[in-house]
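README: folding subset

This subset contains proteins for which both the sequence and a predicted structure token string are available. Records are stored as plain text. Below is the entry for NADPH-dependent FMN reductase (188 residues), shown exactly as it appears on disk.
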Amino acid sequence: MKIVGLSGSKVGSKTRTAMDYTIKSFVEKYPEAEITLIDLAEYDVQFSDGRSYLEYEGDTLFVTKEIMEADALIIGTPIFQASIPATLKNIFDLLPVSAFRDKIVSMLVTAGTPKHYLMVEQQLKPILAYMKAQIVQTYVFIEEKDFHRKEIVNDDVLFRIERLVEDTYVLTETYTKIREEKEAKYDF
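--- output ---
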């Protein structure tokens, strides 16, 4: 099972901090899974210009191929101006419409205020559904007050991250088995 964690912003530290906790939890609970963290702050990803993702080179090709080859994706995103960052939107634009078909996608969101949870419901989930993702419905929403000195200080948030990891793994495993059983019915 290949899991990709995607930290979807070039600026700030809270989303990366939360993703680090998430990846650490994944490694501890499911060491047999192949887990990769892609922090967009560490890559030089080109703007989408409508080409197939396979026609790009360098970091752009690497990031998009890693996402396309994954069985599951954990997207970590901050909320900027009541929306997702342009860096994350650009990743969606680089990928084909059905990029997330047969993939489990879970979400972890950092925000300054509790009012921003609507961004997930009104923007991120519809994009993921359009791209054919099997969405883990419960996401982790982390507010500014849950962090102190680049650490998560709210035990409830840590519990929710562990639950998100478990839900992502179990759903990926389940959908993989269902898909394999369905494909086994065909002889070609």
